[in-house]
Design goal:
It comes from Micromonospora mirobrigensis. Helix content is about 35%, strand content about 20%. It has five helices and five strands. A hairpin with a 7-residue loop joins β4 and β5. α1 runs parallel beside α4.
Length: about 170
């Protein structure tokens, strides 16, 4: 992803997880069992930390979290527990919706804008970028943190975060 088309958003910062030297993302208090939530929080922090010096944060920064399958590890754990007649811990109800971690990212970083979670059926980047374009165009946000995350079975997953803002259409 590069600078947007005329009137579109500009990439202010970008990060991925993993990058060379990365292990597992740091644990995230209040979230259990799954690497999904720590991965979202780690890549979001990394991206926001890469905001260019002298670029002030927007007044309304949206968080747009995009994942076709969401938190697979937690969903599979809950499915197995229910199928086996075991008790499901209360934290799984909290973390079962992706906006719990998106809201935590917004709160931790003082982002005051909409929080949107998408599960696209097509291209995740295109769906997320279209949502960001809409939020910026409608004035709901003046920048957006777009986080794309997917988990493969039996793997911690990968994530990309892009901070988008500016653009000539704003």
């Amino acid at each position: 992803m590069t600078a947007g088309e005329v009137g579109g958003p500009v990439v202010l910062a970008r990060a991925a997880w993993p990058e060379p030297g990365d292990g597992a993302p740091p644990p995230l208090p209040g979230f259990v069992h799954s690497p999904f939530h720590p991965l979202v929080a780690a890549v979001a922090r990394r991206c926001l930390d890469r905001r260019p010096a002298g670029t002030p944060p927007g007044e309304q920064t949206a968080v747009v979290l995009v994942s076709a399958q969401g938190d697979r590890a937690s969903a599979e754990h809950v499915r197995a527990a229910v199928a086996g007649g075991a008790r499901v811990g209360p934290l799984f109800f909290f973390q079962s919706v992706p906006n719990s971690v998106a809201g935590l990212v917004a709160a931790r970083h003082g982002l005051h804008g909409p929080v949107v979670c998408l599960a696209p059926t097509g291209d995740p980047l295109a769906g997320g970028t279209a949502e960001v374009d809409l939020l910026l165009h409608d004035g709901d946000a003046d920048e957006a943190l777009l986080v794309l995350i997917e988990q493969a079975p039996d793997a911690p997953g990968t994530a990309v975060a892009v901070l988008l803002g500016g653009g000539t259409g704003q």
